Amino acid sequence: MHDSLKELFLKYVPPLIDRIFEGVLGEEIVEPLRFITPRTNLNLVQQLCHLVDAILPPADMNPPEDVVELEKLYLFCLVWSMGGALAADDREKFNSFITQIAQTLLPPNLYDNYYEPSNLSLDLWDKKVLKYEAPEDRKFASILVPTVDTTRYSWLLNALLANKRPVMFCGDSGTAKTVTVFSAFRALDPEKYIFLNVNFSSRTTSRNFQDVVEENIDKRSLKSYGPKSVGKKMILFIDDLNMPVIDTYGTQAPNALLKFLVERNQLYQRGGDLELRDIVDVQYVGCMSPPGGGNNRVDPRLMSLYCTFNVTQPSQKSTQQIYTSILQKHLLEFPDECIGAIDNITVATLSLFYQCCEKLPRTPVKFHYIFNLRDLSRVYEGLLLSTKDKITTKPQLIRLWRNECMRVFADRLLND
Ligand SMILES: Nc1ncnc2c1ncn2[C@@H]1O[C@H](COP(=O)(O)OP(=O)(O)OP(=O)(O)O)[C@@H](O)[C@H]1O
Ligand SMILES: [Mg+2]
Question: CA-CA distance, 160 to 146, in Å (whole number)?
Fold first, then answer.
């Protein structure tokens, strides 16, 4: 297997690195590909190795041995390592370049496919998407409609967590990063994992962060500290990791501490004897917004410890699927004429939303013109407050919908 992996490495990795970083396309030099957050060639190769490690069956499970058998697995890993953090617009270029080097028959878009170990082939993520079930607590915040995006990012997260690798999701506001991570956590075995959720903000200090971590770990042996429930692993999930302020020296103090923790699994005691403590059974997951547009850039040395993925805006199809499913579940026992209006309501809301995104750009005066999935959710949250004794006809439902749209979109607009 060693030789096969080496052959695949030589076939793909050097040309891909040249294409991504230098823009080498055959004899030509074109625009290099862009990342959502800075990455280096070494980061990409490291992520590739972590993914291959996570997916390749162990030696006693007779893993595929020769190049032909391994190629699909390798392609899948390449897409989610070399191509995982690429900007959304450049994924297509990456896909066509890799298809060109592969010179075998491949699906049109490798990003849409997962690797199926049972027959060593690639298959559509679409087939893995579970059916939507309404949450038991009936709270809007706990609704998660499985889509291609949530399914594949949860899958990648689980695969890497099982191999103890830190994972980072990077994407614009409202691309469902937090929702996806929480859904992946819910699917994990509660007997084995506990979660610690920390939200970073501009006011978070390294002290705050250390306090939160220390409150959640106990002494295990002389210098070793671990999660309070013995035998379980703690997943330390840090949301909005790019938020802490940059100090005079150009660092973000909580992130500098986090880097120390992730890299060495150790923390110094503050005060006292400044004891160096080993932290065991803790794993790291993070979410952040991409640098630029007012967002801070995170220390690349911290970023290089994480396997990083760009969470792109859900496609129009996924968005439609999310909101149609939510409404369908809620209106199940409503009159037929209301149920019949579901598709049109969703199409109209999405059309309104996309028009707002396109025609109402953000300017210094209209700085609050940011439209994302959260606004759509607010419209639907309002619709879900309807009850079947109050809404009995279609016009009543449409009136409610209009009211919600006015509230969420129109009330925010300025005249000049
Ligand atoms: N698959 C889905 N099912 C249900 N709701 C979804 C889904 N995807 C996105 N949403 C909705 O999109 C909104 C934004 O999601 P989320 O809070 O996870 O974004 P985010 O990427 O974490 O944004 P930020 O960077 O601002 O924290 C939420 O209100 C959520 O209800
Ligand atoms: Mg979030």
Answer: 20
Contact 178 CB / ligand 1 (< 6 Å) = yes
Residue nearest to atom 27 of ligand 1 (CA): 173
Is the CB of residue 139 below 6 angstroms from any atom belonging to ligand 1? no
Nearest CA to ligand 1 atom 1: 145
The pTM (predicted TM-score) of the whole model is 0.91
From the CB of 150, is ligand 1 less than 6 Å away? yes
Q: Whose CA is nearest to atom 10 of ligand 1?
A: 176
Ordered strands of the 282-288 beta sheet: 193-199, 233-239, 282-288, 167-170, 307-310
Q: Does domain 316-412 have CATH number 1.20.920.30?
A: yes
pLDDT, block means (10 residues), the chain with 416 residues: 90 94 90 93 95 89 84 93 93 93 88 89 90 85 88 93 94 89 87 93 93 93 90 93 92 95 94 91 95 86 95 91 93 91 94 92 86 92 92 93 94 83
Which structure tokens are listed for 303?
């970023």
- 147-310 folds as Rossmann fold (3.40.50)
Give the tokens for residue 214: 């220390």
